[in-house]
C-alpha cells in the first residue's frame, strides 16, 4: 500500500480484524452469515486536489466481487483509471486481483497484477498458511519466486477484515490496530493496519447507494484505514483510505488518499450473488 500513485494498492478492499472484536467463533459465524455475496460496480472520479497536485482529473471504473463457496470466499477486484495531469502526460493504470480465503482462516491464496502505462508495476502470486485463525503462519510466493514472509500471530487476511469492521461497528469499537497481509508489496509486509470508525452507524436510507435495491437497504459506517510498513519507525502511513461499509459487507464508497489528491470510487450498480448451498 504505497502512498505514491505509481504503485496503486493491488488489494483495495481492506478493513480490519482484531482480537477482542472478532475473536470468538460465534462472532465469526454471525458475521459470515450476514455477509452478502455480491458484485459491485463503481465509478471512479477525482476527490480533493491540492493546488500543488499535478492531477487535474480522474476517470475510471472498478468492479468488486465477493463470491461464496462451501469452503470459503473468493474476492475478485478490477480497477482501470486514467489520471489526467496538468502537463498533458496522462497516466493509465490498471489493477486486477483475485484471492481465496478459507472459512476456517487457515489458508489464503492471492494473485494480483498492477499496470502503469502498460508496464507491470507489481505482480504477486502465492499462498499463506497457518494452523488456525490467529496463529503464526508463513506466506510463500511463486511470484516473486522464492519469497517467504513470516506472519505473526493475529495477522489479518482481507475477508476477516470485512467481517471485523461489521463486528466493530455493532459493538461500538472506535479504534484499534493489528498486523495485516493481503499479498501485495511483499517488501513491506506484513503491514500494520490502523482503523478508526468515524461516528456511529448511519441509516440505510442515508448517503450514496441508498436507492440501489434490497442489498443496499442496510445501515453503514464510515471507516478510516491507515497502513504502515512492517516494523516501520516512521509516523507517516504508506497508504490511507476511507470506506462506507454496510452491515452486510457491501461498500458504498471508497476514498483513496494519495496525499496531494484523492480518488473516489462510488457504487453505481450492484448484483446480489447466490449463496452456496452446503450440507
Report what the structure shows.
The protein has 279 residues and is mainly beta. The protein has one domain. Helix content is 9%, strand content 49%. The chain has 2 helices and 14 strands, in the order H-E-E-E-E-E-E-E-E-H-E-E-E-E-E-E. It has helices at residues 25-34, 158-171; strands at 38-49, 55-68, 72-85, 91-102, 107-116, 119-129, 137-143, 148-151, 175-180, 191-202, 220-228, 239-246, 251-257, 261-272. The protein has a 14-stranded antiparallel sheet with strand order 8-7-6-5-4-3-2-1-14-13-12-11-10-9. A hairpin with a 7-residue loop joins strand 6 (119-129) and strand 7. Helix 1 (25-34) packs across helix 2.
Defining traits:
14-stranded antiparallel beta sheet, 2 helices, 14 strands, 9% helix, globular, disordered N terminus
Amino acid at each position: 500500500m504505497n502512498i505514491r500513485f505509481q504503485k496503486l494498492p493491488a488489494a483495495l478492499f481492506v478493513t480490519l480484524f482484531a482480537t477482542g472484536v472478532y475473536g470468538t467463533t460465534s462472532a465469526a459465524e454471525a458475521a459470515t452469515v450476514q455477509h452478502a455475496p455480491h458484485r459491485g460496480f463503481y465509478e471512479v472520479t477525482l476527490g480533493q486536489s491540492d493546488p500543488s497536485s499535478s492531477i487535474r482529473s480522474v476517470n475510471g471504473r472498478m468492479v468488486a466481487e465477493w463470491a461464496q463457496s462451501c469452503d470459503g470466499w473468493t474476492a475478485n477486484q478490477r480497477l482501470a483509471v486514467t489520471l489526467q495531469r496538468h502537463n498533458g502526460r496522462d497516466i493509465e493504470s490498471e489493477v486486477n486481483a483475485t484471492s481465496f480465503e478459507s472459512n476456517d482462516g487457515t489458508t489464503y491464496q492471492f494473485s494480483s497484477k498492477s499496470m502503469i502505462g502498460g508496464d507491470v508495476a507489481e505482480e504477486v502470486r502465492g499462498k499463506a498458511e497457518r494452523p488456525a485463525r490467529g496463529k503464526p503462519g508463513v506466506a510463500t510466493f511463486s511470484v516473486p519466486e522464492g519469497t517467504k514472509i513470516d506472519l505473526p500471530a493475529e495477522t489479518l487476511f482481507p475477508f476477516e477484515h470485512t467481517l471485523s469492521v461489521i463486528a466493530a461497528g455493532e459493538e461500538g469499537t472506535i479504534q484499534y490496530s493489528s498486523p495485516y497481509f493481503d499479498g501485495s508489496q511483499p517488501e513491506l509486509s506484513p503491514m500494520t493496519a490502523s482503523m478508526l470508525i468515524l461516528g456511529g452507524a448511519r441509516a440505510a436510507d442515508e448517503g450514496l447507494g441508498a436507492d440501489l435495491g434490497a442489498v443496499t437497504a442496510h445501515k453503514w459506517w464510515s471507516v478510516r484505514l491507515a497502513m504502515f510498513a512492517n516494523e516501520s519507525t516512521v509516523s507517516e502511513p504508506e497508504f490511507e483510505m476511507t470506506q462506507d461499509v454496510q452491515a452486510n459487507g457491501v461498500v458504498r464508497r471508497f476514498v483513496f488518499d494519495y496525499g496531494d489528491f484523492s480518488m473516489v470510487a462510488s457504487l453505481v450498480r450492484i448484483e446480489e450473488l447466490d449463496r452456496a448451498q452446503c450440507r
